[in-house]
Amino acid sequence: MTQLPPFRKLSFAAVLALLFWTSGAAWGQSTYSPYSRFGLGKLQSGAGIAQMGMGQMGAAWTDRSHLNTMNPAAAAFLSRTTFSGGLEVRSERIMEGDSTTQGELGGLTQVAFALKRAGGKTAFTFGIQPRSQAGYDVSQVLENSVADEYQIRYYGSGGLSESYIGLARRWESNAWRKFTGPEGEVVDSVRIITSGTAIGGRFEQVFGGLTRSRTIDIANPIFIDTRVQTDEDHRSAGFTAGIVREQLLSAEFDKDRKLVSSSLLRVGAIARLGRSHNIARSERWSSWQALSTGPIEVDSVHATEGSFTLDIPLQLALGAEWEFNSKSGARWRAGLEWRQARWSMVSNASLDPGVSWQDDTGLSVGASLTPRSLDDARSSWGRMTYSVGYRQQNGYVLIDQGAIQTQAWSLGWSLPMLGSRSGSSINAAFSWTSTTAGEASPLLERGISALFGFTLHPFFKNQWLVPRKYD
């Protein structure tokens, strides 16, 4: 029997470098939102696919098998080393009166790792994820007594990414559950975990660039058109701290002293500390002439370079979650989260006229159900986790029509992989979003997103990158 040569073994560092490079290359323009023209672009929550189905909650959301990419303390509750990633396919529709524009796009989502020994209390996390997105192409037609009719077009692309490295640690409290006999005497006792507290922090580096242009196209050929091109490089570094407290509320045992039912309460908080955000901006004014072959640049009128420093405010999130594990093996979870950031304290010097920073407030609610445990489920439908959530955000940027408002409904699924000995799973989420700037705004943005990803855990002795021989 001929034996094939073994596969070449890749180093773990090489795999990480490949994943980080492909994720960065796939991010770019990933939205058509006209509201991404303002501020730092369209901000992202940082939620993983497993969290998307529950309203993108992160303050108190923890799971033994899925990584919480928002709260750096939650990784301490993982059962072992975890990797998560995925991709997003999105369709956005922009409506203004009777006019409708629609486009589809997609790309990779975050890449996240948590290194943790099975049964350990400490987790080391690192990863990269999108922080904001910009991608718009909008225009408006105006009239002037001198130039007659003219069109102003706004175009932009780019976005900001965030890389991070963090550490989390968990402490547990135990108690003895005593069992008494018919006459009230203690016949047995079992030690159970009654509470757990995790504290974590991570260092973050935000980087990226935004390209914005504004073109004035005058219908009268006597006049020369004007274009303003703006390129921005963004950099900032900061720290995020998190805490999660898990408390056992009730526990029920059967006659064999086996735990059959329990309920838990989790509370958590995330503090994204204030930081200095540096913007290096270059602007170039140029003149354009419309010809039959298309527009050509006539002259470069003016160019400037400058820099801005934004004092990004403290961003705070508080949440609570309740979990109930029934005798039948079903697991119910429900939670809520509140968020706030005082963006109104930031200087408006870097913004266009008529645009200002606005205090940001938000609320998320979510619930999930796992009908049966892995041991009791007879089909994939029984062991799958189903989730539903709602997220509301108001503020961050104030424009002429009002503050930007976003509402999102989401559904999620998580299916453990067949034959997996480590709890790896396939995750999916669908989200419906609506964004406006108040009732006076002429623009209404609606989007539908489909996210697909996976959570992987290494098998015993880490069989991810082990070379194999095949006969």
Please characterize this protein's 3D structure:
Helices cover 5% and strands 63% of the residues. Strands 2-3-4-5-6-7-8-11-12-13-14-15-16-17 form a 14-stranded antiparallel beta barrel. The chain has one domain: Porin. It contains three helices and 17 strands. The protein has 471 residues and is mainly β. Strand 4 and strand 5 form a beta hairpin. The radius of gyration is 26 Å and the shape is elongated.
How would you describe this structure in keywords?
471 residues; mainly beta; Porin; 3 helices; 5% helix; elongated; disordered N terminus
Summarize the structure.
The protein has 471 residues and is mostly beta strands. Helices cover 5% and strands 63% of the residues.
CATH domain fold name: Porin
CATH architecture: Beta Barrel
Count of the domains: 1
* Category from helices, strands and their pairing: mainly beta
> N-to-C terminal Cα separation, in Å?
7 Å
CATH superfamily: Outer membrane protein transport protein (OMPP1/FadL/TodX)
Amount of beta strand: over 45%
Q: What top-tier CATH class fits best?
A: Mainly Beta
Sum up the overall morphology in one term. elongated
Report the total helices. 3
Instruction: Give the beta-strand count.
Output: 17
Q: What would you report as the Rg, rounded to the nearest angstrom?
A: 26 Å
Helix content: under 10%
Strand order of the largest sheet: 2-3-4-5-6-7-8-11-12-13-14-15-16-17
- Mean of residue pLDDT? 83
SSE series? HEHEEEEEEEEEEEEHEEEE
Sketch the major β-sheet.
Answer: 14 strands, antiparallel, barrel
Low-pLDDT sequence parts: 1-29, 460-471
